[in-house]
Write a structure and sequence with these properties.
The protein is an alpha+beta fold and about 450 residues long. It has 9 helices and 25 strands. Helix 1 packs antiparallel against helix 9. It is globular.
Length: about 450
């Protein structure tokens, strides 16, 4: 029995030593060939990085040689290209290339023609980069005659304009993470922003005109603030100044229900194919994908352009609510069709455009816990390096920044010394186990010899 225990101990020690050699070798190798000193240990959000890479390639190659970019289901950057040389350059940059017939310039020219046509309420159009088409939709309120006239316009543009009828009605979602009330109806607080002097709520423009007074929807009836700037139609954003000038604690967190929230670490632009989340006081937290960009919707109240189109559902009461991904603010809910029982199409006002137009910045928390304001429109490269978020549905951490993963701590340059120590200790352990085994074998041999010849 004692011999069996000793054999088990030796085997465990050898396995631990071999594991230590592998771990130490990995630490040293990755530290020597890894990130430069001072680089972030935490991984940048994958979708944000993919979006930034695609935007940079499209900007470099131009609108005649590219037809847009998107993120595929595996999180890879895909860029539509119109020639072989552009495809080679895209692949050389580490992205996927898809050859298409029409460049972005041609797609945008088609949109310009549609905008110049007589306005038809209940219609929308957007750029579908993956299909290399302009998609025109008409809801149930569009008459047959109006649809036929719009179809004639699309036919004259070319075969890359796709016509679709959709159920429901394109409406603004008046009546959000947290509900706010006024005489205009019920809307949602979107994101907290600041001009450096006062704090504001960024929400949808159709919620109420300048001068609208807002009250909390939590039953207290206290005044939240007053709308001091608004743009609708054309755009769909507004600014509600807090009554006391300050957003208070948790200004960088958006509610997702159940007393939980997501910490916002910056603002950025959406990418087609990107997974996104939307929070609203009516339907709660919902998720889906960005399906198109630069969308135009002809609401009964007026036309809004430059919107983000998604398949995330929304219902009345969700208007103005925040849309985000990986902790990055992307948009506020504008409107759409359908509901969360049947699904539908929902449109969002891009946050970066609203911030730039209003001259405000997103309220975020710095890694050291202090408050700061994120710039209104970060570059593609900066968006790719944005901080990580708190997963939707999880309680917001006090600092709001995810720490480096355990394996990441073993890859920095500071891991060279510890890695060499692990290797040395493992070699010593292996040598010790071999010596002990040899010594035990010698003793066993002497015992056997004595039994036979003594």
């Amino acid at each position: 029995m004692g011999h069996a225990r000793r054999r088990i101990v030796r085997r465990v020690a050898r396995l631990a030593a071999v594991g230590g050699l592998l771990l130490g070798g990995t630490m040293v190798t990755r530290a020597v060939a890894g990130e430069p000193s001072g680089a972030r240990a935490s991984r940048a959000p994958a979708a944000a990085s993919a979006s930034a890479a695609g935007a940079a390639l499209v900007e470099r190659l131009g609108t005649s040689r590219t037809g847009g970019h998107w993120v595929d289901p595996e999180g890879r950057t895909v860029v539509a290209v119109t020639d072989g040389a552009a495809a080679k350059e895209v692949r050389g940059a580490g992205a996927e290339a898809k050859t298409v017939r029409h460049g972005l310039g041609e797609l945008r020219s088609a949109v310009a023609v549609l905008r110049a046509a007589p306005r038809v309420a209940g219609t929308s159009w957007a750029l579908d980069y993956a299909a290399n088409e302009v998609v025109v939709r008409g809801d149930s309120t569009v008459s047959g005659a109006d649809w036929a006239r719009l179809t004639d316009v699309a036919r004259e543009i070319g075969g890359f304009v796709r016509m679709e009828r959709t159920e429901g009605t394109f409406t603004t979602r008046v009546n959000g993470a947290r509900p706010i009330l006024s005489t205009a109806g019920r809307c949602s607080a979107g994101f907290n922003v600041s001009d450096g002097k006062s704090d504001f709520i960024l929400t949808a423009g159709h919620c109420g005109p300048t001068g609208s007074v807002w009250f909390g929807g939590d039953g207290t009836g206290g005044q939240v603030g007053r709308t001091v700037a608004a743009s609708f139609p054309g755009d769909d954003f507004s600014l509600v100044e807090y009554a006391d000038g300050a957003a208070g604690d948790g200004a960088d967190v958006v509610a997702v229900g159940g007393g939980k929230g997501v910490r916002i670490t910056g603002a950025g632009d959406a990418a087609v194919g990107q997974r996104v989340f939307r929070s609203g006081s009516t339907s709660g937290l919902r998720d889906g994908r960005v399906t198109a960009l630069d969308a135009t919707v002809n609401y009964p109240e007026g036309t809004v352009s430059g919107l983000i189109e998604t398949d995330v559902c929304a219902e009345p009461g969700d208007s103005g609510g925040p849309m985000f991904s990986e902790g990055i603010a992307l948009g506020v809910t504008s409107g759409g069709s359908g509901d969360c029982a049947r699904g539908g199409t929902t449109f969002f006002q891009p946050v970066t455009e609203a911030l730039a137009s209003l001259g405000v910045s997103m309220v975020v928390t710095a890694p050291d816990g202090s408050r700061q304001e994120a710039g209104p429109a970060p570059s593609a490269a900066a968006r790719g390096a944005a901080a990580a978020d708190i997963s939707p549905g999880a309680s917001a951490a006090p600092d709001g920044v995810a720490g480096p993963a355990p394996l990441s701590r073993l890859a920095g340059r500071r891991a060279v010394g510890p890695g060499l120590l692990v290797i040395g200790g493992s070699l010593a352990t292996l040598a010790a186990t071999r010596w002990l085994r040899a010594e035990q074998d010698r003793k066993a041999y002497r015992r056997q010899y004595s039994a036979l010849w003594g």
